[in-house]
Write a structure and sequence with these properties.
By secondary structure, the chain is α+β, with helices and mostly antiparallel strands. 30% of the residues lie in helices and 23% in strands. The structure holds zinc ion.
Amino acid sequence: MDATAVQGGGCDLFWPCIDNPQVEPMAADIYFTVDNNLIAASNGRLQSVTESNGRKTFHWRTETSINNYAISVNIGPYELLEGTYQSSFGNTLDLVYYYVPRKDDKVQQLFDEIPRMLDFFEQMIGPYPFGNEKVGVVDTPHLGMEHQTINGYGNGFKKDGYGFDSILQHEFAHEWFANQLTNNNLDHLWLHEGFGTYMQPLYAQYLNGERPYQSYLQSLREKIVNKFPLVSNKVLNDDQVYNDEKGPGQDLYQKGALVLHTLRQLIGDDAFFSATRVLVYGMSDPKPGQFKPRLSETNEFIQLINKATGKDYQWFFDVYLYQAELPILEQKREQSKLILNWKTPNSLPFPMPLDVSINGEITTLTMNSIEELDVSAKDVVIIDPMSKILKHEKAIDDYQIYKKENNK
Ligand SMILES: [Zn+2]
């Protein structure tokens, strides 16, 4: 089994192209000639298979514009699972999974996860973007990659207790957040990876409710390092973005997801999902066949959030995206008072409302300035009891140091 996966390395490793996210081929014809016992699986629709001299030539064609790195060829002794999915938007999608045969039924189990994932993405975000081509998965020797209409899968059918395959779901999320919506500069990669990662806890919540949602978010929270801001308003290359020593690296995933969780708690589901929909499709009521892949960037998302809410949330993004460090909630407990104050990098304004539970009763503070609450020494106080807000947590810093010291 062989496969290409050139995100970061560059599409120009195996075909001539301009390796920049702003440049997308409008269509691609992909021909691969392989030994007779092998199959070449790629993007778009299979046009033909021709045989000559003991070899087969597979011709794949996509007629949708495509990220350069999302063009991929996968070669193996594949067999094929096929099905269809009736979309609530009225179209019927072709589902295909090119897999390496094995003795158990894990391939079928993974294939059976796809319709429910489609239900989720179509309900939460909008129509599957490439319905005129296919929903495709292919076994790969690498962990996974968001190759348009032919998602690479190599997660070994792992289980983690959440009831779905997180890698398959993550790569599939990129059909919306990377392939349909593409950042116009890698500085905005959090739009791919933050949304792409937030879709896993969101799906856990969709399937089984609050406990898996919060548990998933907690596992992401523990990995956030806050060394570089998610967005720096510069034109960046792969190394400046992915390399943890030079840029946000893994924070694009975990911190991006927690920022989106916090935003959703702040503005509510209606505004959050309607702004997200316009970001992805460029329209509020997308229908199959009426939209094309589009380029966007952070600033458009901020404007869409402001429009959807009728308020100015620039302060939220100024702190969470453009600063490396998280806001700190300063807490002072005096004899009969609890004093709370947001401290932000560069003293940026941060009027983030805060829930405080005192002996089980929740008060919401506006936090426009320093807040004081009457609290006695024996009162039980829980700050942000529903875990709505991404903020500095000493316990997490301590845990990260402990893990480092103990090589965990
Ligand atoms: Zn990803």
